Amino acid sequence: MDRVVIYGGTGGIGGATARLLRARGVPLHLVGRDAGRLERAASELGETGFTAGDVTDPGLFARVAQEAGDRLSGLVYAVGTIQLAPVAKLAPERIEADFRINALGAFLAVQASAKALKAGVGEGTAGVVLFSTVAAAQGFANHASVAMAKGAVEGLALSLAAELAPTIRVNVVAPSLTRTPLSEAITRNEALASGIAGMHALQRIGEPEDVAELAAFLVGPQAGYVTGQVIGVDGGRSRLRTKG
Predict the structure, then answer these.
(1) How far apart are CA 239 and CA 220, in angstroms?
(2) Are 152 and 102 in contact (CB under 8 A)?
(3) Residue 216 CA to chain centroid, in angstroms?
(4) What pLDDT digit, counting tens, does each position of 74-97 carry?
(5) pTM of the model
(6) What domains can you pick out in the chain, each with its CATH number?
(7) What is the mean pLDDT of residues 46-61?
(8) Which side of the chain, N or C, has fewer Cβ within a 10 Å radius?
(9) Alpha-carbon distance 131 to 79, whole Å?
(10) pLDDT value at residue 67
(11) Do you know which CDD domains this protein is assigned to (predicted)?
């Protein structure tokens, strides 16, 4: 069975996706910044390779493509940022960093592995999963930088889905606030987290496994007729209002 590459493979959502896929027998190649965490995760999961590096390093993507092998069945780019600030306090370099990590990194990851993804599908299709946010579809104050970057991810995914068809499918998962290390600054404040949970129809904040279930489905053969979609895992936040 060909491998699935997971960028951010030791993070909250990326790690949960990795565990789900390994439970289904899918070999993996994880990418992350911390070599020690990657090595431990690879050892625990089994049949898992890894590459350590930062997605702001343009040379990382070629290394991943080389080390992950020349046949891939999927790619998950579970790397992101949460930069919340009013417009007046957003420095250009911070906005550029958000764009580089979220959007440019996603493009470079797919570009570097496209050949291996096409080679690994046989008679089926390879699956690529990128990540957006509910804030790209909803207007939230103080979300200008992340919403702009993730909006670019959604546009990128549509273009890639059209260009790389029929051998590679590209879809986007758009979560609402999820309890991960990345969001800990928000979720560890229970009063704040409770208030945000109340804004959702399902009255709770997401868990990594909520999002990972969809990502694992979309990257796999069961989603063989799904491409070019942006799908929310957001407790109804993007579509429903239960009060007022």
Answers:
(1) 27
(2) yes
(3) 11
(4) 999 999 998 889 999 999 999 999
(5) 0.96
(6) 3-176+208-233 (3.40.50.720)
(7) 97
(8) C
(9) 8
(10) 98
(11) SDR_c
Give the tokens for residue 112.
């570097």
Concatenating the DSSP letter of every residue in the chain gives --EEEEETTTSHHHHHHHHHHHHTT--EEEEES-HHHHHHHHHHHSSEEEEE--TTSTTHHHHHHHHH-S-EEEEEE---------GGG--HHHHHHHHIIIIIHHHHHHHHHHHHHHHT-TTS-EEEEEE--GGGTS--TT-HHHHHHHHHHHHHHHHHHHHHTTTEEEEEEEE-SB-SGGGHHHHTSHHHHHHHHTTSTT-S-B-HHHHHHHHHHHHSGGGTT--S-EEEESTTTTT-----
Residues 182 and 12 sit within 8 Å (Cβ to Cβ): yes
**Residue count (the chain):** 244
Write down the residue that tokens 């306090």 correspond to. 89
The rounded distance, in Å, linking the Cα atoms of 161 and 76 is 14
CB 182 within 8 A of CB 11: yes
Spatial contact of 169 and 125, defined as CB atoms under 8 Å apart: yes
